[in-house]
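Run log // design_07
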């Protein structure tokens, strides 16, 4: 009996360590986000844990997805996500759904380039562009790593993207909200995007017209959870 106790104790330590890690959203090697798709759209208001990670695709069909890091069409020139899922915390999804409803009422919808990003990917980005004006230092962590940030643009109801003046992930002054040497159309498009997002509890990021953080999400834990593809 005594020898069994000695064996059991370290096992409990290992198990409790993994349990604690999942609570703080620092994953164990076996900890993956659920990529399964619901056969019917789910109601986000029924999700009780506002900090849980969920797949936006299970709650709406009114978004356009162009998940750049699931392709090679990005500044890394490398596919770093296994597939184009959009995970976010429940509270972020709730706010994003309401923002998209406002855009739909005006004849537009949100196009999404990036959602939750594992910290391991953040490290790779920082290695390529170690500039905090454009890529968050992984030592501190990005809001993307916390499930509270989205990179977005707008399309009309025919799927045509509005002209925002630069491409997504353009690392230059022209991408800034403060850069006004642009056409009236581009300035109006950026203003439309920003005004609606700010009305729905997001805040903008000065150097990137496409980046929006849910207010208060900087207080959430950084996560390094990954996902498997189910299709």
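design_07 sequence
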């Amino acid at each position: 009996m005594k020898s069994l106790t000695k064996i059991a104790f370290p096992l409990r330590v290992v198990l409790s360590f993994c349990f604690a890690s999942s609570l703080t959203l620092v994953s164990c090697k076996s900890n993956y986000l659920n990529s399964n798709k619901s056969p019917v759209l789910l109601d986000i208001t029924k999700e009780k844990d506002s900090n849980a990670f969920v797949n936006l695709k299970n709650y709406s069909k009114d978004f356009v997805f162009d998940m750049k890091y699931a392709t090679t069409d990005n500044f890394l020139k490398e596919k770093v996500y296994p597939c184009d899922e959009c995970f976010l915390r429940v509270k972020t999804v709730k706010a994003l759904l309401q923002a998209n409803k406002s855009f739909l009422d005006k004849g537009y919808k949100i196009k999404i380039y990036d959602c939750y990003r594992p910290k391991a990917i953040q490290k790779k980005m920082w290695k390529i562009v170690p500039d905090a004006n454009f890529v968050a230092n992984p030592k501190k962590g990005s809001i993307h790593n916390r499930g509270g940030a989205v990179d977005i643009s707008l399309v009309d109801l025919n799927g045509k993207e509005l002209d925002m003046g630069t491409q997504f992930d353009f690392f230059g002054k022209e991408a800034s909200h403060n850069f006004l040497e642009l056409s009236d159309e581009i300035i109006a498009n950026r203003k439309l995007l920003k005004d609606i997002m700010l009305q729905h509890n997001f805040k903008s990021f000065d150097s990137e017209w496409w980046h929006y953080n849910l207010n208060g999400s900087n207080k959430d834990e950084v996560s390094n959870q990954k996902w498997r593809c189910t299709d």
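The first strand starts at residue 32 and ends at 33.
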